[in-house]
Design a protein that fits this description.
Layout lengths: L5 H9 L10 H4 L2 H4 L20 H23 L9 H31 L3 H26 L10 H4 L6 H15 L3 H31 L2 H17 L3 H10 L3 H30 L9 H20 L7 H7 L3 H11 L14 H10 L3 H17 L41 H24 L8 H11 L2 H17 L4 H32 L6 H10 L4 H10 L5 H30 L3 H31 L2 H25 L11 H20 L6
Helix pairs in contact: 4-10, 5-6, 5-8, 5-9, 5-12, 6-10, 8-12, 9-10, 9-11, 9-12, 9-13, 11-12, 12-15, 18-25, 19-21, 20-21, 20-23, 20-24, 21-25, 23-26, 24-25, 24-26, 24-27, 25-26, 25-27, 26-27
GO molecular function: monooxygenase activity
Enzyme class: oxidoreductase
EC number: 1.14.13.227
Length: about 675
């Protein structure tokens, strides 16, 4: 045993940078291969690997690991353990070897690039060990499936896959070619070792080891465990690299590199690991769902790292979190539907007990995916296998090279309510707003507010404001119609909450009718009187004609366009802006404040309807023609309705002329229209 410990001499072995005299330093470390030129050469001397190892320690550790792993493989290979494994787990093993064995070897190119073009000697030394690691990983993960050929012929895809243009191979190759085969040293450190290995695969291997041991696959568990210890060591290169970059004022570039590769790594990871954890692993061996794994390990770890290094979450972080609920489930249906095109035997994983587990882990799974699997299951049971295969090729994303999928139709997941409301949040939000409204009413009622209102103003209220509850009811029930036929739960929820908003406004009008009747006569609280205005008053007839026709808009897209993009915005502007101003001018602050409070709901509603409209226009160029066609069909009716009601504003003691009312409505509706129409340029 040498007398000196590693700490006595280690720094001497990692301090081997020097100043070049015979060649240009820029030629030794060309920017295209090094990528380190943003940082002064001397700054790279601060690069410090957290985990230090000598060559002696390295070979000692590695020979011990290899001896143990290969010995176990030889012993298990003579047994029948693999034959007894669950078919779903065999799919995990075969899929893993085909997708990962060759990329592990190719990763040695990336490690070697860092070992050659990294600017710190300590970095180059660490990358040298990493290069050896990846050579080992490529070779051992080719050797192990070769030993399975007698029991599982598809094991030869470990070597074959990357020599084909299989669509899974293309997606994985596209990712890894950009990540480490054709990348500079700096980017490899941040995108391979920091983003992929530290963020995803290092932790994934820990989970795979546990699952393998649990299902009885000692060979695969031993292999992955052995590989994971190597990954944990050489993955450390990313952290000191990004620290040097940030410390020298280049946080934005580091952020760009992480953002760029995290998304692509996530998509590939969801394909290879999401399916394995939630569908292929035997049910009684599942320790956690894929979503739980990502939340507990990837999300939490990356959140800690971002804070540690002053990085921000990637700009698409909310979309990534959203995809945890559905993306890998959607990809699973693609893989199973196109099962003849992949090298493993995809396990559907949708037995009754498995579906119950999926619903528990992913509430709403049965609603979003269960119906799809019901059809497939019935076709399989009746022997109609031809109906389980797709009739067309999938459309692939040009970035991740995987099929473009959505959970339950084209809109599912693509559109979300900007308010991010679920039932509990909506109720809590509106409970607080109702407390506010009640306090407003209490304050004015304590002052006997209604008794001081001008009778001529009360007459306007009786003619215009109180019959408006019939109009609101149409908006309410049309919102319910739009919600029940909506192609996504996000739209359904928002529409149903909007219907509740209209009911809220309607009920406050009913409250005002009764409270006004206490000071100005019982006719104000008589629905017969209000209905007479609604049914017979010439000022209301264009609006009634419009709204009754709205109830016959049964085409979902037309109903949404007419209600949420044309009719409701105009009526909201008329009552919650123009009539609010009229009430204020006539010293009726209670009515004005209640209308203003209702306007808060309307503005929230326009947030989600505008978002959906922008998505619809951007989703397909032809949608613009349809939306504008429906808008032009309904807008003349809306104009007639608003003009007729605007004429009643002149009867107030402090009147507003119809032209000014029309201008208020036009300004508000034009502003809203521009928010969704001009935001998406015409094709």
């Amino acid at each position: 045993m040498p007398r000196l410990s590693r700490s006595d001499w280690y720094d001497l072995a990692r301090d081997t940078n020097w100043t070049f005299s015979y060649v240009n330093e820029a030629d030794v470390f060309p920017e295209e291969l090094s990528g380190t030129g943003r940082v002064p050469p001397e700054a790279w001397l601060a690069w410090d690997e957290p985990y230090k190892i000598s060559y002696r320690e390295y070979v000692h550790n590695q020979v011990t690991k290899d001896t143990t792993t290969y010995s176990l493989k030889n012993a298990v290979g003579r047994s029948k353990l693999f034959d007894q494994l669950d078919p779903g787990w065999k799919s995990v093993v075969v899929a893993h070897y085909g997708a990962i064995a060759m990329p592990e070897y190719l990763a040695s190119f990336g490690e070697a690039r860092m070992g050659r073009f990294g600017r710190a000697a300590a970095w180059r030394n660490t990358a040298t060990f990493g290069t050896l690691d990846e050579v080992r990983h490529g070779q051992i993960q080719t050797f192990f499936p070769y030993g399975l050929l007698g029991k599982e012929p598809r094991g030869d895809w470990a070597l074959k896959a990357f020599h084909t243009n299989n669509w899974i191979t293309l997606a994985v190759r596209h990712l890894f070619d950009d990540m480490f085969v054709a990348n500079d040293a700096l980017s490899v450190a941040i995108q391979l070792t920091f983003t992929l290995e530290t963020g995803f695969t290092n932790l994934q291997f820990l989970g795979m080891v546990a699952d393998a041991i649990d299902v009885g696959d000692l060979e695969f568990g031993s292999l992955i465990s052995s590989i994971q210890t190597d990954e944990a060591r050489h993955a450390q290169q990313g952290e000191p690299t990004i620290k040097v970059l940030i410390d020298n004022g280049h946080k934005e570039y580091g952020q760009f590199l992480v953002d760029h590769m995290f998304w692509r790594a996530w998509r590939a990871f969801a394909l290879l690991t999401g399916l394995s954890m939630d569908y292929y692993t035997p049910l009684d061996s599942r320790k956690m769902s894929f979503k739980e794994f990502i939340q507990d390990w990837v999300v939490k770890q990356f959140a800690d790292q971002f804070r540690d290094y002053g990085l921000d979450f990637p700009w698409y972080w909310d979309e990534f979190i959203n995809e945890l609920d559905w993306y890998h489930h959607a990809i699973h249906t693609v893989v199973w539907n196109y099962r003849p095109s992949v090298w493993w035997n995809p396990d559907a994983g949708v037995s009754p007990k498995e579906r119950q587990w999926l619903e528990e882990k992913y509430p709403g799974w049965n609603r979003a995916f269960g119906k799809h699997w019901d059809v497939l299951t019935e076709n399989v049971r009746t022997g109609n296998l031809a109906e389980t295969f797709p009739e067309t090729l999938p459309v692939a994303c040009n970035l991740c090279q995987l099929p473009i999928v959505r959970a339950a139709g084209v809109l599912a997941g693509a559109h979300t309510d900007p308010a991010q409301l679920n039932y509990r949040r909506y109720i809590a939000l509106q409970h607080d707003r109702e407390i506010y409204a009640e306090r407003v009413v209490d304050r004015f009622e304590a002052l006997d507010h209604d008794a001081g209102l001008d009778p001529a103003w009360v007459a306007v209220l009786g003619r215009v404001y109180l019959p408006a509850r019939f109009a609101l009811h149409v908006l309410q029930i049309t919102s319910l119609y739009v919600g029940q036929l909506a192609p996504s739960a996000a739209i359904t929820n928002a529409s149903f909450f909007q219907a509740a908003d209209e009911l809220r406004a309607l009920q406050w009008i009913a409250y005002r009718a009764k409270s006004l009747s206490l000071s100005h006569g019982p006719d104000l609280a008589d629905s017969t009187v209000a209905r007479r205005f609604w049914e017979q008053d010439p000022a209301w007839q264009p609006a009634r004609e419009l709204l009754e026709n709205l109830l016959l808009a049964y085409d979902w897209a037309e109903a949404f366009t007419a209600l949420d993009l044309v009719v409701k915005p105009a009526f909201d502007a008329l009552f919650k802006q123009a009539f609010t101003a009229l009430a204020t001018a006539n010293r009726d602050e209670l009515t004005a404040q209640l209308l203003h409070e209702s306007g808060v709901d309307s503005r929230r509603g326009q947030d989600w309807t505008g978002t959906l409209a922008r998505y619809i226009l951007a989703a397909r160029p032809g949608n613009r023609e349809h939306v504008l066609g429906w808008e032009s069909r309904w807008q003349p009716r809306v104009t007639r309705a608003i003009d007729a009601l605007a004429g009643t504003f002149g009867a107030a003691p402090a009147p507003a002329d119809a032209a000014s009312v029309r201008q208020t409505v036009d300004q508000a509706t034009t502003q809203f229209r521009n928010s969704w129409l001009t935001a998406v340029p015409a094709a």
